[in-house]
């Protein structure tokens, strides 16, 4: 049998030494083991548990060595149980001997599947702090939206000239230009200070820079303060989603990480509220509108250290004892913490063999040279770039200007912008329930066509005479429709997606690249729009962004794989699938099947899945575990071989659909 097992593969294509590979995996050379997935070219789309196929004796010996090496001998019995649960999550009630689970452990494992929102208070406190960090981001964005109507007059900037339009655009773009530096600072800051320390530093920068903006005396001083604000925004936006993703369980990771967008939208709404509250205060209105963004930064500065540090960051630093303590706070029961720390360790060991330890410069270069990382980089760049291509920041930055140009008074423009902020916030809530069921990809593919037609409709409204009462009303209506489609799709997905697709070794630099891409193009949008309105008019500008929505839809369809309900480490297998294989599947199998089923309304065989989880039922890990738990619940705690499996709530029956981990909308 020794001749049948291939060597493990580096992501650069080179083979590991066979004995080194076997020693690393903690198994005998003669032990039977599933064929290892090539993480450079996963042609079959297989997702593999690194513990599968290891004998119980070998696994427990590896756990003993793990506990001894990392100072966890005091919890060794629990770690042995956790490792066996991680090896086969469906059969924990069949574990025998000294590792037999007690009733409380069984109940905890069952509850995390059947009641996935029943999580620890520390996890929810962490999510709240991450949400406050997002609100800072949103409020910072909209302070300038209202200030645009008054600070140019104070600084005697003529916005109707090319130079004046450029200065206003540059001041609005300054935070996003500054973020180009802040995003790259996030890697060394995270390395030395951890996730919490980076958030603390960036929150302080955001706090003091908005105070400075409110006290500036020249537009050049305002520009500098807003660049400093951008440095804090970039570091924070690169870290908060990672922090939330690393602390969250896989089954609800998308919903918890998307709190970034939900509360960014809430911050945008609060910013519009602040604009309204101070609009009639005279010449200091713009100072109050810019300075009010300090409010959400204060609780973030004082609250972040009440949250546990990321256990994955501690493990990256070799501090496994602290990592276990963090997991104890983030999970409901010690058995879950023991299972997670050993399973994460196993996956990280595999990543370390594949990726090694490199300098910051080398890690950045590897984002584009190592196939697994390059695919993640392309996917993250696509969703981040699409957020700017869709045109949402045209409205976030300039909605008051757009409404005023449409004939609204200054007060009506503020109220119309307030409505945009409210819609943007309210319609982000559906994503909490859909991002982990329908999936990230499906939400994007559904919402982008609707954003395209509604954006085009906004432009067409400009053809109605300004003297007509319907002009402003129809424009506001279609802007609100656009916001309603943006908020549950392209709103929450980019930061959620980018925070999860990179392996731990490259997560900071990868997220830094993704956020820098997003915020750089936000700066381009901010600088370009005043010129576009002068050169192209409202119809031309909004028509351009309608076309960009269509282009972004095509890019997402071809280059963005689904990531829902996979652990962060299992995504190595998703992004090991070559891009050409993914594109060929979408064009030759998924798209024709979808057209036949939903356009021509012809029923046929279920869609053949692209990804296959290595499990007896061929279903995804979460789906399979959920099905087993439902059977146990129905049969009084026993699983019978003839029992019919049950699909998770709010999801189609994957066994009927034949597409593991995908909905019918998710081509």
TrEMBL record:
GO terms for biological process: myo-inositol transport; polyol transmembrane transport. InterPro entries: MFS_dom, MFS_sugar_transport-like, MFS_trans_sf, Myo-inositol_Transporter, Sugar/inositol_transpt, Sugar_transporter_CS. It is a multi-pass membrane protein. GO terms for molecular function: transmembrane transporter activity. It is found in: Membrane. Residues 636-647 have a biased composition (Basic and acidic residues). Residues 653-667 have a biased composition (Polar residues). One of its GO terms (cellular component) is membrane. Residues 1-22, 636-667 are annotated as: Disordered. The chain crosses the membrane at residues 164-185, 197-215, 221-244, 256-278, 284-307, 376-395, 415-435, 442-465, 471-489, 510-533, 539-560. It comes from the Eukaryota. Signal peptide: none annotated. Keywords: Membrane, Sugar transport, Transmembrane, Transmembrane helix, Transport. Belongs to the major facilitator superfamily. Sugar transporter (TC 2.A.1.1) family. This is MFS sugar transporter-like protein. It comes from Hyaloscypha variabilis (strain UAMH 11265 / GT02V1 / F) (Meliniomyces variabilis). The lineage of its organism: Eukaryota, Fungi, Dikarya, Ascomycota, Pezizomycotina.
